[in-house]
Each structure stands twice: as C-alpha cells, then as structure tokens.
Amino acid sequence: MNKRESSVLPETFDFIPELEGDFQLKPILNDEGSFTRAEIYIPSTEGVLVVNADITEILNWGAENSVELENVIGRLMKSVSSPSFSFAGLSLDHPILMGVLNITPDSFHDGGRFANHDLAIAHAIKLLNSGAEILDIGGESTRPGADPISEQEEIDRIAPVIEGLVDEKALISVDTRRAGVMRAALSLGAKIINDVNALTDIGSIEAVKKAKASAILMHMQGIPKSMQQCPNYFDAPYEIANFLSKKVALCERAGIPRDRLAIDPGIGFGKSDDHNLAILNALPILHGVGVPIVIGVSRKSFIGRLTGTGKTVDRLAGTISATLYAMSQGVQIHRVHDVAEIKQALTIWERIKCGLN
Fold first, then answer.
1. Among 105, 111, 154, 353, which is disulfide-ready with 139 (CB 3.0 to 4.6 Å)?
2. How far apart are CA 34 and CA 287, in angstroms?
3. CB–CB of 242/24 below 8 Å?
4. Quick one: which of 210, 198, 199 has its CA closest to 264?
5. Chain segment 342-351, per-residue pLDDT in tens
6. Is 335 a catalytic site residue?
C-alpha cells in the first residue's frame, strides 16, 4: 500500500464507507501524558495519507467534511482520550501485571522449569504473592521456530495446573490458539483466553462467547515456525492497529461484548527489531481501537540483540525499561515473567509520578 505524509489536511475528501475501519489516530503525547496534536491516518483507494496536525484542526476538518467523517474522528478521539478502565472484571485504574507460567519443555525463557505440575502450581502461587493479578498459563510454545504439538498434549499439560489453582481464586488466562483447548480450559475455571491467532481457529469465538469469557486478541504475521524469516510491513503500527480494530469489530458482531476484549500488538511475533521499536514508539495509536492494551516484552530476543545480551537471564533490565515505557504510554496490562521485580520498579515509578503531581 502507498503511504504519503503531510502537515496539511486535504481540502477536499471523499469519504468511502468501506474504508471506515482503516482510519487511525496516533496522539502525540507530551511529558504529562496529554496531547494537543496527533497523526491521523486517512485511507483512500490509492493508499493512506498521514497528516500531523493540531487536534482542533482535525476535529474541524471532519465536521466540515461530512457527518460520517466527523463520527469516525469523534470515535477515535474518544478512544485515545479515555482508555478502557476495566477488563475481565479487573479495574484498570492501575497497571495490571500478568504473570507468565509456561508448562512447556521448549519455551524461550522458562521452558522445562515448570513441566512438573506441582512445581508449576507453586510458582503460580509465588507469582500471585508477588503482585500478579492474572496468571497466563501456556501449554504450547509459540516462540520463533517452535513446532506445534497435538491438542490433547496441550490440554494434558495445562489441565492439572488450572485445577490446582482454582481454589486460589486466581484469575486464570490460558495462552492457546486452539478452540478445543479453549473449551477444556474454560470448563475447568479459566476466565481469559490469550490467543496469538486472535480467535481465528474455527469455533474459538463461539467458545469464548458461550463461556462468557474474556479474550486477548494478538497480532502475529505468519506462524511461529517461520514468522521471523522475513517479516514485512509498510507501516507496522498502522497495519497492526487496523488488523486489531477489525478483529475487535468481528468479535463484537459475533456476540462478545467489547468490555471482554483486549488487544496485544504481538512484540516479536512476525516482527523485526525495527518493527518492534516502531510499535513501542507508536503505542498510543492502539488506544484508538477502544479496548485495553496488553503488551509482552518480557525477556524478548529483541532486547538481547539491541543490548548484546544473548541469554534471556541477562535481559531483566531491558525488560523493566521497555515495560515502564509502555506504562508511560497508557498500556494497561503487562505480561511478564519477573513479577516481583517489575512490581518493585512499578511501585517506585508510580511514587515518583505521584510526587510530581
């Protein structure tokens, strides 16, 4: 797709209803987290025009053009100005930590450490006591290059752990892309489905809807086995915001209420290091989707490549830095391995911020 940039809004513009979902708005945040300017992505049949303009100017341009355009800009402006404040029964008036628990032999950071169910349950309780408000349990590795496993093997890995944690009154998320695994996990007490395929598998939307569960829709270009071989975007943040906007709309039409949906741009899932940095730099564009944002930067390989730290155990400082930056951009939910350390960093960050207000 052709992309042009300008500092001037087009004098004349023909609104095309079929392209309504391709409008996006990226606020340009100041040091206080507010904004008076934004980049508006204006689609047409010839490509997309990106205009950096004053908010008042953008609103006036929409109102002077057509009711349809005014409504689209108004919706985007409302979403980026008032991020969602609840998800899966949790209040999002503070950053939420989502503790990672992989019941796998081959996950990139903790593979094999918690394959024993008793060890997994003990670690889950430790994550909760350290400050995790959501536990994200995975039975299949989706790291770059990972091979798929059978549906039954995935269920066999996670089911005893879910059963062992239900009495802990933990809010359990299951990291899976299979509808059958979703149904099994939800029947055992899981409340959230975290899907790298954004509920693409046949029956997955129905499984979430029937259980009245919540879902995290993630963007991934390609499949885990080959996703890092040649990722390609003309504008990664814009394309991902478009994809997730349309996925949320699809789920809502299928009967999953918007307040039970969240999105994840999928850092490291079919993205180069430059794509990852561009996404993190443009996180405010995702608020325009109108649902909470989940981010997972924990121990990711891009941190290692950018800092020369090859082993995942050496990537904690980079993880904390990227997580705190995401928090400063209004991201509400943070998927992390090191809950205690991130909690400590978050506590100091918030105390400093409150001290300045």
1. 154
2. 13
3. yes
4. 198
5. 999 999 988 8
6. yes
328 close to 350: Cβ distance less than 8 angstroms = no
Amino acid symbol at 36? T
* Spatial distance between the Cα atoms of 355 and 271, rounded to a whole number of angstroms: 37
Residues 335, 343, 351, 353: which is the catalytic one? 335
Closest CA to 291 of 264, 269, 255: 264
Instruction: Tell me what pLDDT residue 110 has.
Output: 56
SS3 139: coil
**In 257-282, which positions are buried (b, 16+ CB within 10 angstroms) versus exposed (e)?**
eeebbbbbbbbbbbbbeebbbbbbeb
Residue at token pair 């628990």: 101
Q: Helix, strand, coil shares of the chain as percentages rounded to 5?
A: 45, 20, 40
Beta strands (DSSP E) in the chain are 3-6, 24-28, 37-44, 47-54, 86-87, 90-91, 96-102, 134-138, 172-175, 192-195, 214-218, 261-264, 294-295, 333-336
**0.70 cut: is pTM over it?**
yes
What are all long-range contacts of 222-228, with beta carbons under 8 Å and residues at least 24 apart? Answer: 222/270, 224/141, 224/142, 224/143, 224/144, 224/145, 224/146, 224/148, 224/196, 224/269, 225/145, 225/146, 225/147, 225/148, 226/145, 227/144, 227/269, 227/270, 228/144, 228/145, 228/268, 228/270
Tokens of 346: 């978050």
Measured between alpha carbons, how far apart are the two ends of the chain, in Å? 44
Enumerate residue ranges in the chain where pLDDT < 50: 108
Catalytic residue among 253, 300, 315, 353: 300
203 burial (CB, 10 Å; 0-12 / 13-18 / 19+) is middle
